[in-house]
């Protein structure tokens, strides 16, 4: 093909071209959309019949990559091979070769990324497989894996790290079902049978240590130096949110006295978790104003190096003080305080912690997040937390606070 008919576009033009179809020559076209995006398309002729095949989106495939791909497909067409059918054949062949557990596991993970919080980038979905299953079973054909293999693999964890073993078994079961969907012969009962062989786990789950609510004001008062860590812990206590959304708090999430936590950062599947509104009481707004002095890139709790503070930053502070309690435990402190000192309904109390209550059908009709009711509860919690009470005065002061609030 004559070179003068090729490479009509430049990288600069590709970014600035208006919507429409633009030829690069040799049958390679860029279809530009109104929103600025686009698609690379190659037109070839096979036995006199014109064929069009996509070569990828403009955001994923550069001009050079599109030209390289087009050259390969044109070479096939010159040999009277339909490039579209050849690509489909290669995909089918790859699927047939996808038979080792490690390959199936990776494919299953890629298929489920869209369902996972943060696209599973934190590694929590795949890590139980990667750390505890694939080192022993990854090189085995998935069709040869049976309950005995699974039992022997998970036995060392079953009674010592039961939650990890349970997650690994669950992920492995998903991988086997994925393999079956690919058309591979697998034993779909292998995981259930392995669980029966392993028996009941002797491991007893332990809750994250939580501070008694009567001691929270004293601890809150001790967080007084205005550092990022102290401010983050204070806001964590006041709002009752999990540490992940708190650490990633961004200016754009705050509107007036409401903090909207993006659904994808909440615990659960991101496609079923709506955005969560957190009422910001005056004490919380004052903390946020202090935190703005440390903000970087809009994030209120930046790390000293890059990004935001780590999950261990607040835990380390408490550990260095010789405390057994951990930041996540303050959610329990709040929930027990609500139960013991207020007459808040179960639905409102659970929503204060971002928990989902009732069935999906009930929630479909009860279209409220109890924002104002929660605001009243969190204002009372903030008054108690910021009172600086000593543990010995806790019960008497809380009783007085509850009484005055009820009278109001």
Automatic annotation (TrEMBL):
InterPro entries hit by this protein: DNA_brk_join_enz, Integrase-like_cat_sf, Integrase_catalytic, Integrase_DNA-bd_sf, Integrase_DNA_bind_dom, Integrase_recombinase_N, Phage_int_M, Phage_Integrase
Superkingdom, taxonomy of origin: Bacteria
Biased composition (Polar residues): 388-401
The keyword DNA-binding is assigned to this record: yes
Molecular function GO labels: DNA binding
Domain Tyr recombinase stretches: 206-378
Pfam families, alphabetized: Arm-DNA-bind_3 (PF13356), Phage_int_M (PF22022), Phage_integrase (PF00589)
Keyword Acyltransferase applies: no
SUPFAM superfamilies: DNA breaking-rejoining enzymes (SSF56349)
Single Gene Ontology BP annotation: DNA recombination
Family per similarity comment: Belongs to the 'phage' integrase family.
Protein name according to UniProt: DUF4102 domain-containing protein
Source organism (scientific name): Rubellimicrobium roseum
Taxonomic lineage: Bacteria, Pseudomonadati, Pseudomonadota, Alphaproteobacteria, Rhodobacterales
